[in-house]
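$ ./design --mode recover --in tokens.txt
reading tokens...
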């Protein structure tokens, strides 16, 4: 690479934490006017490399040069002063302050010794116009959508730093239209000579916007490639360290049709403000997908089954016997397991060890008077750490120190340890890397092959098509259609969501 337009050059970067080498001799180069995607599985070292670059973590070895000059940032504030800003997936601004205050906090212009609010507000308007964003900058930040908040964060970062912008999973909470607007801004900044480091799990987005791709795996450098010259299947293979074909589900799914016997049945099920009059049968050994837009009632159905939300009307039966619906414990003891959508607030308990997290549901199933011994707990934890390939130096590692994908595996291990007959997964692959995602998808199909029944909810229709032997579609908290076999196709699902007719069901237009 020519050094004339080189912004960042990181060489031989190493960083270790107790029991694990997070980065081992890793390089990275970022040019001005370039969008550079940094990819890898959870635990590959992406976040640690960014933290080293921005002064959050001190490197153990190696060098970082900015426009050819060695730098040693000690904090994100140091990095910002040097011209390096980061915008994270979860916007790290102050929601209770105005948009203008967020943009200029810590660097407010003064007039006669006091903050010049008129200038702050006008400068904020002028800055946001560069991003085609016209909003009331005097309103609190939390008045606006996540997409607008993220654009404000980018605008602030650009105003502080005119050299390097790091976007860490910026699209996870955005709609497709909002993603397109973000890409327009990224290309605008690229044209102005900014170097952008783009971290994402969405490979289609990488190919839509990135010029260059760097891949890390297990804390090591795999390679840097021109995006236009690296086919997606080869990229996935480099991220996984194996051929993508090894994770192909087509042959397994062809054999997966589910049994004739129903395991669970819902009749006219209603919850307070959740779903309305849902009839549903779940068959043994199938992977049943529940699809629909956000707020359609997808999560509410499984929460009713698991007893988190009360059943207001109707009936739910498991193996022909009524399911109590008085909290999750009766469901757990009947062999029902549930991995919730938000693993951070409803799933993982960060301050407990991996071992303690894994045995939680099993202990609840056994009851408080049948305590699991330490030796048994260690055997169970060791079994599922190996089975799910949870990357950790020890089962005593605190769960909060794991990557997102490995936390998700711990939650799966928790429920698999209970030997459930019905496993319900709500967005089990959200926010995790393509490798772990493919592994979880393959595991879902494998569990169904072994006789377990799986309910699978995902916002990504393509992964549901990849895994599910049958799908139901919800709209406005009602079931509006059902697809199975060769009828399962993205166009059919989208038609039902939009208000089409399938299987002779009479549906109202949206």
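writing sequence...
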């Amino acid at each position: 690479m020519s050094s004339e337009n080189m912004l960042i050059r990181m060489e031989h970067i190493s960083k270790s934490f107790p029991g694990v080498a997070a980065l081992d001799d890793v390089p990275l180069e970022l040019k001005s006017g370039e969008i550079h995607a940094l990819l890898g599985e959870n635990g590959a070292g992406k976040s640690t490399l960014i933290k080293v670059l921005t002064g959050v973590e001190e490197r153990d070895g190696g060098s970082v040069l900015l426009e050819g000059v060695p730098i040693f940032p000690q904090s994100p504030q140091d990095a910002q002063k040097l011209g390096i800003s980061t915008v994270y997936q979860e916007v790290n601004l102050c929601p209770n302050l105005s948009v203008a205050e967020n943009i200029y906090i810590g660097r407010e212009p003064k007039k006669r010794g006091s903050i010049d609010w008129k200038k702050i507000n006008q400068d904020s308007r002028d800055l946001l116009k560069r991003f085609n964003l016209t909003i009331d900058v005097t309103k609190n930040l939390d008045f606006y959508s996540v997409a607008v908040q993220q654009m404000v964060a980018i605008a602030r970062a650009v105003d502080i730093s005119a050299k390097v912008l790091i976007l860490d999973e910026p699209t996870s909470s955005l709609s497709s239209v909002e993603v397109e607007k973000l890409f327009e801004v990224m290309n605008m900044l690229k044209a102005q000579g900014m170097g952008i480091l783009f971290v994402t799990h969405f490979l289609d987005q990488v190919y839509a916007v990135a010029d260059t791709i760097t891949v890390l795996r297990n804390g090591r450098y795999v390679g840097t490639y021109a995006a236009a010259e690296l086919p997606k299947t080869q990229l996935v293979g480099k991220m996984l360290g194996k051929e993508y074909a090894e994770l192909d589900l087509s042959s397994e799914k062809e054999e997966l049709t589910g049994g004739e016997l129903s395991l669970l049945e819902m009749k006219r099920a209603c919850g307070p403000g959740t779903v309305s009059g849902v009839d549903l049968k779940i068959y043994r050994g199938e992977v049943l997908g529940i699809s629909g837009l956000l707020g359609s009632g997808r999560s509410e159905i499984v929460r009713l089954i698991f007893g988190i939300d009360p059943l207001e009307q109707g009936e739910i039966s498991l193996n022909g016997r009524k399911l109590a619906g008085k909290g999750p414990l009766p469901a757990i003891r009947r062999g029902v397991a549930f991995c919730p959508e938000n693993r951070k607030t409803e799933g993982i308990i960060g301050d407990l060890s991996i071992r303690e997290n894994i045995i939680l549901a099993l202990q609840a199933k056994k009851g408080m008077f049948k305590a699991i011994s330490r030796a048994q707990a260690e055997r169970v934890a060791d079994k599922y750490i190996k089975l799910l390939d949870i990357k950790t130096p020890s089962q005593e590692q605190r769960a909060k120190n794991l990557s997102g994908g490995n936390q998700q595996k711990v939650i799966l291990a928790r429920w698999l340890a209970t030997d459930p007959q019905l496993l319900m997964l709500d967005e089990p692959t959200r926010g995790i890397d393509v490798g772990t995602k493919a592994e979880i998808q393959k595991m879902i199909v494998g569990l169904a092959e072994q006789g377990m029944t799986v309910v699978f909810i995902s916002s990504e229709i393509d992964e549901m098509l990849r895994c599910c032997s049958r799908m139901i579609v919800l709209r406005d908290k009602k079931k509006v259609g059902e697809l199975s076999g060769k009828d399962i196709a993205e166009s059919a699902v989208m038609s039902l969501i939009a208000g089409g007719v399938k299987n002779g069901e009479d549906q109202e237009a949206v």
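exit 0
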